[in-house]
Amino acid sequence: MINDNFWQGILLKLSFRPEKKRSGPTRAGVGGAMNVNITHADLVRSLVKDGDAIAGELTGNDAHLLHMAVGVSTEAGELLDAVKKATIYRKPIDCENIIEELGDIEFYLEGIRQAFAITRETVLFANIAKLRRRYHEGRFTNEQAQARADKSPLFQQCPNCKQQGADCVCGGLR
Ligand SMILES: [Mg+2]
After folding, report:
1. Which of 16, 21, 74, 168 could join 163 in a cystine, given CB atoms 3.0 to 4.6 angstroms apart?
2. How far is the CA of 91 from the centre of ligand 1 (A)?
3. Which H or E run includes 23?
4. Ligand 1 center to 128 CA (angstroms)
5. pLDDT tens digit sequence for 62-93
């Protein structure tokens, strides 16, 4: 039976050193990374990037990318909610809604692709190539999923000579 004592126990477990009114630290710093006598709130105040600085640096293209990336995330949340209703609440699957949310995600993905002049075909080709390297047997296995062979230097492009994997002669991939 859950009662007030249960909740009191939870609250106590979640308690950290209480916030006290004091002069510092401020965003200017909390006295170094090894200062262990700080609260989590102090840490966040010290490390978070200033919102005015972010706004001052934003370009129109940055704002567009943020808009599109936020859109992908929020629409993915709406898709997740539709799946949750069907799988957890056992409601009939609403395929029209699934199609709507997939379309909404595609909208924002296209906005990101256009910002970088990337076609959908290029993305799909790259994805297929990655999966081919990762699952070289043509089927899923836990071992290949964990090995992530596509991340091997053999499949990377050298940042110096721009050669692929074994063709790199400058040693940039080692
Ligand atoms: Mg939507």
Report:
1. 168
2. 19
3. none
4. 27
5. 999 999 999 999 999 999 999 999 999 999 99
